[in-house]
User: Fold Succinate dehydrogenase hydrophobic membrane anchor subunit from Streptomyces antimicrobicus.
Amino acid sequence: MSADTSSSAIGEVQGASLYDVDNPAPYIEAPRKRTSKTPRSTRGNFEMAAWLFMRLSGIVLVVLVIGHLLIQLVLDGGVSKIGFAFVAGRWASPFWQVWDLLMLWLAMLHGANGLRTVINDYAERANTRLWLKGLLYTATVFTILLGTLVIFTFDPNIR
Ligand code: HEM
Assistant:
């Protein structure tokens, strides 16, 4: 019986240590260690990029949306000033065209990606997820394309 209680019992046989400085334990390669021969993961970083996009687009949207609400609904007489002439005046400037374009794209992509998450979380059947996301992506692409077309082809002299 060993009276030595100062060292761990691991690797000990009847009080004698199995390994020491002259007889070290064999080095066992970690099973998941990556080497140059390890195949590359087939999964990309899409979800991480989507997570980051939600945060960054959210920050930009705060500025764009609050600015939009102030200009459209608060300043300069509030909603009563809004009409064809007001819209035509604003879209005559590339600055407001880019503002509205950015707001359209970011809000649509942010909202669509948020809903994609909601669908993934709540729709339990694979088929339901497929159809809901198909509908979501169709509506998203349609709205982005139509909105972009309107911003760039708006004609103030239309009759
Ligand atoms: C105005 C500034 C906005 C900020 C700061 C913001 C921020 C965020 C953040 C950080 C998330 C991620 C939450 C999470 O992962 O748990 C999120 C989710 C979401 N956002 Fe926004 N967002 C904004 C505007 C919008 C707009 C304009 C829309 C709609 C077009 C929208 C629709 C959504 C949806 C549907 C989700 C998913 C909700 C969920 O996962 O439960 N957001 N938002």
Notes: Residues 1-6 have pLDDT under 50 and may be disordered. DSSP finds four helices and two strands in the chain.
